[in-house]
Write a structure and sequence with these properties.
Blueprint: E1 2-4, E2 10-12, H1 34-47, E3 51-56, E4 75-80, H2 83-86, E5 97-100, H3 109-120, E6 124-127, H4 139-145, E7 147-148, E8 161-169, E9 186-193, E10 196-197
Parallel strand pairs: 3-4, 3-5, 5-6
Antiparallel strand pairs: 1-2, 7-10, 8-9
């Protein structure tokens, strides 16, 4: 069940367990590297500038424990509680990446221009969990993300569905920097079915 509120966001009336955990820095350190190598690694990480994030929420409930994902020395982050707040200004040069954890139905022309300018300038984008429902009328956003959770039947394709509390076995099919070193093989979360997935996207 869902509806559009006065704030222009999509309000979904079911509680969703956050998913889509992303590790910005994944390093495997073998035991035989020794204390010296660990000291050099720590110094290198301390010298690197932190990744600057803008985290966008609104339009969907979530536990506040979500914020702990960003409590890392390698990150600095700001929080926008709506897409209107997030995209009211030019974001280029201010952030390295956007983290979308919202459920926004609409975006102003000015906001979309700032959003588009940011990603086309090379800004990073991480779309988490229910943010896949946002901007159902925007083919640009759909193609940017490479997928869409369908809230309604579109062009004969039925609406997507979900199931809570599913145990899933997972494996990496296509190597990618995000999954490098990932050892997780089983998760307990929510599943989505019947989404539109861009034919150019590899698994």
């Amino acid at each position: 069940m869902r509806g559009t509120g006065d704030d222009g966001n999509l309000h979904v009336d079911h509680n969703v367990t956050p998913a889509g955990r992303r590790c910005w820095c994944s390093m495997l350190i073998r035991r035989n590297l020794g204390v010296l190598a660990l000291c050099v690694l720590s110094a290198a990480l301390a010298a690197a500038p932190p990744v600057r994030l803008l985290v966008v929420t609104g339009g969907h409930d979530y536990p506040t424990s979500f914020y702990t994902l960003f409590e890392q020395d390698s990150l600095t982050w700001d929080h926008a509680v709506s897409n209107e707040e997030a995209f009211r200004k030019d974001l280029r040069g201010r952030y390295d990446a956007l983290v979308l954890y919202d459920g926004s139905a609409k975006i102003s022309p000015e906001g979309q221009a700032h959003f588009r300018e940011f990603v086309e300038a090379g800004g990073g984008l991480l779309v988490l969990h229910h943010a896949i429902i946002s901007y159902q009328d925007s083919d640009w956003f759909r193609d940017l993300v490479g997928g869409r959770y369908l809230l309604d039947t579109i062009d004969g394709k039925p609406a997507s569905t979900y199931l809570h509390d599913q145990d899933m076995n997972i494996r990496v099919v296509t190597p990618h920097p995000i999954t490098r070193g990932l050892s997780l093989t089983r998760v307990h979360d929510e599943t989505y079915k019947g989404m539109w997935i861009a034919p150019t996207r590899a698994p």
